[in-house]
Design brief:
The structure is a single chain. With about 350 residues, the chain is α/β, with parallel strands linked by helices. About 35% of the residues lie in helices and about 10% in strands. A 4-stranded parallel beta sheet has the order 2-1-3-4, sandwiched between helices. The protein has a 4-stranded parallel beta sheet with strand order 6-5-7-8, with helices on both faces. The two termini are about 30 Å apart.
């Protein structure tokens, strides 16, 4: 059953475009080091891909990321230096549909091993209905979250203030926020590394197995931690959590449509307040790489709290943890608090 998406299309945080695009072509010294080393050189598109490459490759790989820490990845433009780097690397690991400039550059490059994470697990459409109809009066409780198992099918594609219809046929690329899907990608990356660098295949296999096991443990923590909660609905400013919501029987309500500087209308705040009251929502989540202004404005008017739910597109000094696992565990704690976990 395809549950109708109760999407709040007017309040928002888009933000990628607001992040100083002039700096996006900068290439750090670290990135420049990739290619032509005596290790297996891997250029990763952004943090979740780099993390997989480092964990699976271990000491045998030299990994660099095209997206700098703190840079919003969706609007990345590549420098000439980065394009040249792609010609020198042994492998490129990316997620098609998330970063159009990266997809194009890797497609045009002569890099021998191209690993597209989108082909290593199943991608779904989240939010085909986003903004597609009037939601007035839709928050009556007759739905009673009848379709929580489909909760993830509700992904807003416009959250970054530009056409965010992903190239992979409108599919949602945020697969790394579901530990089960991320583990499937890890397995595929491990096999690709074994094939591309057979001398170290045994180590890649062993490292992949260890990573998949750890992701399985993380999945269990989420399953257990979110099983018994007062509410199953959470509100975010960035609709990145469709897969996570679907995996754990939650409903993601994404606020989208306005730029971070815009103030939501009184009518929108009222609509949000009604929905929050009906569903027992206490918190509006924002993320580390974009402005929290709209979230805080709406939360204040609707008498809600704010907290961080990190889409893990990059690790910065604002992140609640130093790596994927630490930040995901911080996300779990934040969700447990907001949802009233028993």
């Amino acid at each position: 059953m395809n549950v109708r998406r109760r999407h709040i299309s007017g309040i928002a945080v888009t933000a990628a475009a607001a992040l100083g695009l002039g700096t996006l072509s900068a290439c750090s010294g670290d990135s420049a080091a990739a290619g032509n080393t005596d290790k297996f050189d891997v250029v990763a598109s952004f943090y979740p891909m780099a993390f997989l490459a480092e964990r699976i490759g271990g000491d045998h790989v030299n990994v660099s990321s095209l997206t700098e820490p703190g840079q919003e990845p969706h609007d990345l433009e590549l420098s000439t230096k980065q394009r040249a780097q792609l010609e020198e690397t042994d492998a490129a690991l990316f997620l098609k549909g998330l970063q159009p400039a990266v997809d194009e550059a890797i497609g045009q490059s002569g890099v021998k091993t191209k690993i597209d994470a989108a082909t290593l697990t199943s991608l779904e459409e989240h939010g085909a209905e986003a903004g597609g109809h009037d939601h007035e009066g839709e928050h009556a409780h007759e739905e009673e979250h009848a379709g929580e198992e489909h909760a993830g099918e509700e992904h807003a594609e416009e959250e970054h203030g530009h056409d965010h219809s992903h190239e992979a046929g409108g599919k949602d690329p945020h697969i790394w926020l579901d530990p089960v899907k991320y583990a499937e990608v890890a397995e595929g990356v491990g096999k690709a590394f074994e094939k591309a660098d057979p001398d170290h295949a045994a180590d890649y296999k062993k490292n992949t197995e260890a990573l998949v096991k750890k992701l399985g443990e993380l999945n269990t923590k989420f399953e257990t931690g979110l099983k018994d909660t007062d509410t199953k609905v959470f509100i975010t400013t960035h609709a990145a959590f469709g897969y996570l919501a679907e995996r754990y029987g939650l409903t993601e309500e994404a606020i989208s449509g306005l730029s971070p500087e815009s103030e939501p209308s009184a009518a929108r705040v009222k609509e949000l307040e009604k929905m929050a009251k009906a569903d027992g929502v206490s918190t509006i989540f924002y993320e580390t790489l974009v402005s929290d202004k709209t979230a805080k404005t709406v939360a204040k008017d609707a008498n809600l709290k704010t907290d961080v739910l990190d889409p893990l597109e990059g690790i910065t000094d604002k992140s609640r943890g130093d790596d994927y696992f630490q930040v995901m565990e911080a996300n779990l704690k934040a969700l447990q608090t907001a949802l009233g976990a028993k």
